[in-house]
Design a protein that fits this description.
The protein is an alpha/beta fold. The chain is built from 21 helices and 7 strands. The protein has one domain.
Length: about 550
């Protein structure tokens, strides 16, 4: 079977190389067809329909490049189905988005690990350890979660400790199977305790706040599914009607206080060998045991302690800053044949993950989902400046490097937009965009600030009015908000209010282009992998529902 699967993978990589070549030829041959989209003299957009067609044609779903998630898992598993994953309810200890991502990616990672015959997984940019914990608890993999933030790793350690504390409850609960009697009062009490722990973990009472990039989780303001309005431009772009968009939208995310109502169904998915041995329901005095029984009990206790020691190392959160030159042996002291994973690795960490995979012989596979394209470093963005940096986030492949290709920050910012969410009215509201645009004018004209690394964040959802929004934003940016009166702030609002529709139209054009820019970045990474001699197979896999998780493409590769 392994030989047969190997042939599948070999032929797949050959097809992938052919598709990349075809896509390149197709792009070059179609450039002339779209040359009339913009006016030759003014460069203004003159043919909107052709613009939409071009943007659609050069996005990943329409290039024939991607590998089907179902087909890939089928090949890796020898066409066997795994029933257990269909019954999981991970949304009881994660929000709906994170639960969806962890459930899908953990299954794919487990299939890759089994295919390669490895048990060690290194999760780069592991954050609070949601994926790492699940891989270790459910799939019994030895996982090292590495994050540059000590706040994240300490939070992951605390969260994992709380989960392990309740493994004993799982053993007691699972003993009788589905036909067991109703829970005893003691079990109900334990359930209530676990529910409280989950709620505290979700609300962050026992964890430090997560450090995340603003581009990954956009503010979503949407009504019920029946009230969803599909923007006609986006509908034309993705080729869907209102019913399809409503289907994509799925169910609304549960509130935090609903996430842990049935805690024991999470405990059901834990492997039995991950559970601490429960103490006997009867207590015995040492004098009640014969010599042989005492020896047996001693042996059992020693084994239980050894199992507990091994279990405590199943998932290990570590703090370290990772670069392409990082020696993993220095961080993971018992490094063996393993695979690298990354769930929404930010900025340059995604290409760094691929470079580590290519350069380290002990890394046999990689599964990387990147995000925060606006934080990528570009080799040819500021050619006039001198840099000592040796590796860059973009471009990676030889072809684009020879072309000295540059996207620029504005394009990379656009790549972070979520077309599918906008299609079901779950994108940023037009008013939020307008507030942000006018704020930038105020900062430039009243404070002389033209560039800043400061972030406003989700101030819009917490503001009662435009003056309130401006004042809260100025405070976050460290600027003196008392310098401006409310009337002065409202004068700016009234001055530009007539251009709100213009701003919305401009943003919609950026949204339509977003998949094309993301495609360029992801194909660059895929081409880089095809250039490596020891890579046996690589592909782009749409792993997630793009409405739930806009950064939904995984770069997957296997060594020969």
């Amino acid at each position: 079977m392994t030989s047969l699967k190997g042939q599948h993978v070999y032929f797949e990589i050959q097809n992938r190389k052919q598709n990349l070549t075809t896509a390149k030829v197709s792009f070059c041959s179609n450039v002339d067809e779209f040359s009339g989209i913009f006016c030759e003299n003014s460069n203004k957009l003159v043919d909107l329909e052709s613009f939409l067609d071009a943007a659609k044609a050069f996005s990943l779903p329409y290039l024939g490049i991607c590998t089907s998630l179902r087909q890939l898992i089928g090949v890796l598993k020898g066409m066997e189905e795994e029933e257990t994953d269909k019954k999981m309810r991970t949304d009881e200890f994660m929000n709906s988005k994170k639960s969806h991502e962890v459930l899908v990616m953990s299954q794919l990672v487990n299939c890759l690990a089994n295919y390669c015959g490895i048990k060690q997984v290194i999760d780069l940019g592991s954050g609070k350890g949601y994926l790492s914990s699940f891989l270790s608890l459910h799939y019994d993999l030895k996982v090292y979660g590495i994050d540059s933030s000590s706040i994240n790793t300490s939070g992951a350690t605390e969260r994992n400790r709380k989960l392990k504390k309740y493994w004993k409850a799982y053993q007691n609960h699972s003993g009788g199977g589905s036909s067991r009697d109703p829970m005893s009062e003691r079990e109900k009490q334990r359930t209530a305790q676990y529910n409280m722990m989950c709620k505290e973990t979700v609300s962050g009472k026992h964890l430090s706040s997560n450090i995340s990039s603003p581009c990954q989780d956009q503010v979503i303001k949407s009504g019920s599914p029946s009230e969803t309005n599909v923007h006609p431009v986006v509908s034309a772009m993705i080729g869907t009607d209102k019913e399809t968009c409503l289907h994509l939208a799925g169910q609304p995310e549960p509130e935090e206080d609903e996430l842990c109502q049935h805690a024991f169904s999470f405990l059901k998915i834990l492997p039995t060998n991950a559970v601490e041995t429960a103490s006997s329901s009867k207590s015995f005095h040492q004098g009640d045991l014969c010599g042989e029984e005492k020896e047996q009990k001693k042996t059992v206790n020693i084994k239980a302690k050894a199992d507990k020691l091994n279990e405590s190392n199943v998932y290990s959160p570590l703090t370290s800053y990772i670069t392409a030159k990082t020696e993993l042996h220095d961080i993971v002291t018992d490094l063996e044949d393993s695979m690298l994973v990354g769930l929404h690795t930010c900025g340059d960490l995604a290409p760094t993950t691929l470079r580590l995979f290519a350069s380290k012989p002990e890394i046999k596979a990689v599964c990387s989902v990147g995000c925060c394209y606006h934080l990528l470093s570009e080799e040819f963005e500021n050619t006039a400046e001198e840099f000592t940096q040796e590796t860059w986030g973009f471009p990676m492949c030889q072809y684009l490097r020879e072309e000295a290709w540059c996207c620029g920050r504005n394009a990379r910012m656009s790549a972070c937009l979520a077309l599918e969410r906008v299609a079901v009215s779950q994108g940023l509201s037009p008013e939020s965009l307008f507030y942000r645009a006018v704020l930038q004018v105020i900062i430039k004209e009243c404070y002389g600030v033209t560039r800043s690394d400061g972030r406003v964040g989700k101030v819009f959802s917490k503001s009662s009015s435009f003056p309130d929004y401006v004042r809260k934003s100025l405070k976050k940016l460290g600027l003196d908000e008392s310098k401006l009166s409310d009337s002065c702030i409202m004068d700016y609002y009234e001055k530009y209010r007539c251009r709100m529709n213009e701003l919305e139209a401009f943003n919609m054009l950026k949204v339509v282009l977003a998949p094309c820019i993301e495609t360029l970045i992801l194909l660059d990474r895929l081409c880089y992998l095809t250039e490596q001699d020891d890579v046996g197979w690589c592909g782009l896999v749409q792993s997630f529902d793009p409405v739930k998780s806009p950064r939904c493409y995984a770069v997957v590769a296997l060594k020969k």
